[in-house]
């Protein structure tokens, strides 16, 4: 028996027929853009769109993949010459394809130098980013740079050896100005509201502090378009990696797995040339906001709701949570009766149909998205997914019986992880220690817990935190969520919503 081979350029011509491969000559592909944060999502989204584009209209848009945080790329993607298998899974169906758009990978975890060399080079005309919500070092409730963030404090003192993403990009722009002076488009592909505006804010704030006209050079030579990105692509497991070996007979340490659905809406605001992703399904628009609200409040809002309440109900994955009759009724009713009314018209899309399509996507049993993964960094997600629609409803004088329940769910998720409440599960969230300290100081009283947590102004806008209906609804949900019957919170809020509905119908 021959030894099992690892995926790489040599294997491209010998792949099984069931695995599609790049329909262009990779040897001729140069690097024209860089991507920061090469994780499962990038491999399933921007890199796949680019691969589609290269097959259709070959050009100069190979990607240099850079990681400035773990994991290292050299041993997986690097060893495979940038190639990896992208599996699309839907229930029993699998579709495999090797993607070729990443031409080189760079590990810059130990020092900024390797990343800066790429980002400052004149071949690179575009940088895309998926660095997670917290990578922007912004204050979630305001979108401004968090000047107290330890990495930002460091980068202000040592701008030439940055640690943060904003520090890295500001330095790269400064180097570009000092050398060839060529423009750069910086395209955020993270799930934060007005992601381009936030990226622009954090970079400009650092550039202003740097002085010497850098901020003016950036205004004239760099753009920060916003984008809405979508495809569910959970963290890859060893079982996923093994499945490629079993099914297709080769080893691939950089497999990526996604659902069939994908979407990309990009603001037309480019500093120079751009890949024609619009030829392969991306939509270019003047204003991304309505698309972004729809996606974050409906799809992501449903995911966060199912994740936090799902964990509290003892359920493992999104598809387990949505198979639960109570949670499934809850999430649909929350979206249809509360979230939809907060959305502005979205060109070419029907929001009600989008709700049904999104719920259908979440039922896909082949996408094993763990509730704990989605609940990770919840503090960075709830503003755009839950708090903004709540704020918009309150501003219009509408009721809010359901949306506050997952907000309480986020609180309960962190409270129950604290030592005081028995360390029920490990959590990863920049605010975990703060909530644990509150839990420690406050103990069991839901009202005191809610008061203290709503006092975190970097998450909760003070106007919202002071709203009586919001406080009451969150408190009553939290009380139940911390009890022996957590799902009573969900049942009661549905009853409350029913009462509001009857009241409305009589008016
Ligand atoms: C998820 C997202 O982990 C999470 O926060 O809600 O990664 C989600 O799967 C993507 O935004 C889908 O496009």
Write the layout of secondary structure elements.
Elements: E1 19-20, E2 31-36, H1 40-44, H2 46-56, E3 62-67, H3 74-78, E4 84-90, E5 93-99, E6 102-107, H4 113-119, E7 126-129, H5 150-157, H6 165-178, E8 184-188, H7 195-210, H8 214-221, E9 222-223, E10 227-230, H9 238-248, E11 256-258, E12 263-267, E13 283-285, H10 289-312, H11 318-323, H12 325-339, H13 351-362, H14 371-375, H15 382-395, H16 404-415, H17 432-442, H18 446-454, H19 462-465, H20 468-481, H21 488-506
Parallel strand pairs: 1-5, 2-3, 2-7, 3-6, 4-11, 7-8, 8-9, 12-13
Antiparallel strand pairs: 4-5, 10-12
Helix pairs in contact: 4-6, 6-7, 10-12, 10-13, 10-15, 10-16, 15-16, 16-20, 17-18, 18-20, 20-21
The structure holds D-mannonic acid.
Description:
The chain has 507 residues and is an alpha/beta fold. It has 2 domains: 281 residues, Rossmann fold, CATH 3.40.50.720; 218 residues, N-(1-d-carboxylethyl)-l-norvaline Dehydrogenase, domain 2, CATH 1.10.1040. 45% of the residues lie in helices and 12% in strands. It contains 21 helices and 13 strands. It has a 6-stranded parallel β-sheet, sandwiched between helices. It is globular. The termini are far apart. The model has no long low-confidence stretch (mean pLDDT 97). Bound molecules: D-mannonic acid (CS2). The site of D-mannonic acid has 9 residues, from helix 10 and helix 14.
């Amino acid at each position: 028996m021959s030894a099992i081979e690892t995926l790489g350029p040599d294997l491209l011509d010998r792949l099984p027929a069931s695995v599609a491969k790049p329909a262009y000559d990779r040897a001729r592909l140069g690097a024209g853009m860089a991507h920061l944060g090469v994780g499962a999502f990038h491999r399933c989204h921007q890199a796949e769109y680019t691969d589609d584009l290269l097959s259709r209209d070959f050009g100069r848009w190979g990607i240099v993949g850079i990681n400035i945080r773990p994991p290292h790329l050299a041993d997986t993607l690097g060893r495979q010459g940038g190639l990896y298998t992208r599996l699309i899974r839907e229930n029993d169906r699998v579709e495999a394809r090797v993607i070729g758009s990443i031409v080189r990978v760079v590990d810059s975890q130990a020092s900024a130098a390797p990343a800066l060399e790429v980002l400052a080079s004149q071949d690179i005309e575009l940088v895309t980013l998926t660095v997670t919500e917290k990578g922007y070092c912004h204050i979630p409730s305001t979108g401004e740079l968090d000047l107290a963030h330890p990495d930002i404090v460091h980068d202000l003192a040592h701008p030439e050896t940055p640690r943060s993403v904003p520090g890295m990009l500001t330095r790269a722009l400064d180097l570009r100005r000092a050398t060839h002076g060529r423009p750069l488009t910086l395209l955020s592909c993270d799930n934060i509201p007005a992601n381009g505006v936030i990226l622009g804010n954090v970079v400009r704030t650092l550039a202003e502090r740097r002085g010497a006209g850098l901020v003016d050079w950036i205004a004239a030579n760099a753009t920060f378009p916003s984008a809405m990105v979508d495809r569910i692509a959970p963290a890859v497991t060893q079982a996923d990696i093994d499945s490629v070996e079993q099914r297709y007979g080769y080893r691939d340490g950089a497999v990526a797995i996604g659902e069939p659905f994908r979407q990309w809406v990009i603001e037309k605001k480019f500093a120079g040339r751009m890949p024609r992703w619009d030829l392969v399904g991306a939509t270019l628009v003047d204003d991304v906001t309505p698309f972004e609200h729809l996606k974050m409040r409906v799809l992501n809002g449903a995911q966060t709701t199912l994740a936090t309440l799902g964990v509290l109900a003892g359920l493992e994955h999104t598809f387990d949570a949505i198979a639960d009759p109570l949670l499934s009724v809850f999430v649909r009713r929350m979206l249809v009766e509360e979230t939809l009314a907060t959305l502005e018209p979205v060109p070419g899309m029907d929001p009600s149909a989008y709700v049904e399509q999104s719920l259908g996507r979440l039922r896909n049993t082949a996408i094993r998205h763990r509730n704990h993964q989605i609940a990770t960094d919840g503090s960075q997600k709830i503003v755009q997914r839950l708090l903004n629609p709540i704020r918009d409803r309150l501003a219009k004088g509408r009721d809010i019986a359901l949306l506050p329940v997952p907000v309480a769910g986020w609180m309960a998720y962190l409270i129950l992880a604290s030592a005081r409440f028995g360390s029920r599960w490990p959590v990863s969230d920049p605010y975990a220690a703060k909530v644990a300290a509150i839990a420690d100081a406050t103990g069991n009283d839901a009202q005191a817990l809610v008061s203290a947590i709503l006092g975190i102004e970097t998450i909760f806008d003070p106007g919202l935190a002071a709203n009586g209906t919001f406080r009451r609804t969150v408190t009553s949900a939290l009380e139940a969520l911390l009890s022996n019957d957590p799902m009573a919170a969900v049942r009661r809020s549905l009853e409350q919503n029913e009462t509001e509905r009857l009241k409305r119908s009589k008016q």
